[in-house]
Design a protein that fits this description.
Keywords: Hydrolase. By secondary structure, this protein is an alpha+beta fold. Helix content is about 25%, strand content about 20%. A hairpin with a 7-residue loop joins strand 6 and strand 7.
Length: about 210
C-alpha cells in the first residue's frame, strides 16, 4: 500500500493502493491501520475501527459497491475506519462503498447509514467503536468463518497469512458482538453514535465559528 500526500500534512492511502480482499472487511481495515501506523505521519490514536452489526446479524447499509440502485445491502456485519477530526471534519474509510474515499462522516451518515426509524427492529444497527491501536494489538482471525462445511472457501481469502496475536488465533466474534460486556471498545446504538460523533462535532464547530 502506497501513501498519497494530501495538503502536505497527512499521508493517506488512496483507494486503489489499499490492500483489499472482497468480503474480508475486518482484515482490510486492519491492513489500513497497519499502514497508517507504519507511516508515522498521522497519530493512530486519531482513528477508531467501527464494527456495525446487531443481535440478528442483519444490518442494512446503502451506497455499497455490491448494491443496486438505492437499495441497501444486508450484511451480517461490516467494518469501517473512522478518523476523528481534531481541527477538521471526521471522515470514514469504507473500501466497499461507492462514496468518496475518504468520505466525510456527515455524508456517510446521511447516505450510507441513514436512520433506523423506518426499519423493522431486527434491522436496527449497533456500532462497536474500537480504538485503532487496540484493534491492531488484539484482533485475530483464522478465517474459519469464511469456510463452508466441506472446508472450501465461501470467498477467496487474502494472499497474506491470517492475523494472529500471542493470545488468540480467532476472536472475530468478540468484535462483531454488540454485547457491551464482551470484547474491546464501546458499543453504541446508531442514534447514540450519530449524536456523539456527528452532532457533537457539528455543535463544537458551530461554537468555534461563533467565538471567532
Amino acid at each position: 500500500m502506497k501513501g498519497q500526500l494530501k495538503k502536505g500534512v497527512e499521508v493517506i492511502p488512496s483507494r486503489e493502493n489499499c490492500v483489499y480482499t472482497s468480503c474480508y472487511c475486518e482484515e482490510n481495515v486492519w491492513k489500513l491501520c497497519e499502514f497508517i501506523q507504519a507511516q508515522k505521519m498521522v497519530p493512530l490514536d486519531q482513528f477508531a475501527v467501527i464494527f456495525i452489526s446487531n443481535d440478528t446479524r442483519t444490518v442494512p447499509l446503502w451506497r455499497q459497491k455490491s448494491g443496486h440502485d438505492d437499495r441497501p445491502v444486508i450484511w451480517d456485519y461490516h467494518v469501517i475506519l473512522l478518523k476523528v477530526g481534531v481541527k477538521s471534519d471526521s471522515v470514514i474509510y469504507d473500501l466497499d462503498s461507492v462514496l468518496p474515499f475518504p468520505c466525510s462522516l456527515r455524508l456517510y451518515a446521511a447516505q450510507a447509514l441513514r436512520s433506523d426509524r423506518n426499519l423493522r427492529p431486527e434491522y436496527h444497527r449497533k456500532l462497536r467503536v474500537v480504538p485503532a491501536n487496540s484493534f491492531l494489538l488484539n484482533f485475530a482471525s483464522d478465517r474459519s468463518h469464511m469456510r463452508n462445511s466441506d472446508g472450501t472457501w465461501k470467498m477467496p481469502p487474502p494472499s497474506y497469512p491470517p492475523i494472529f496475536t500471542a493470545e488468540s488465533k480467532m476472536n472475530l466474534d468478540d468484535f462483531i458482538s454488540m454485547n457491551p460486556a464482551v470484547g474491546w471498545g464501546t458499543v453504541y446504538t446508531l442514534d447514540h453514535f450519530l449524536l456523539k460523533f456527528v452532532e457533537a462535532a457539528s455543535t463544537s464547530a458551530s461554537s468555534s465559528t461563533t467565538a471567532l
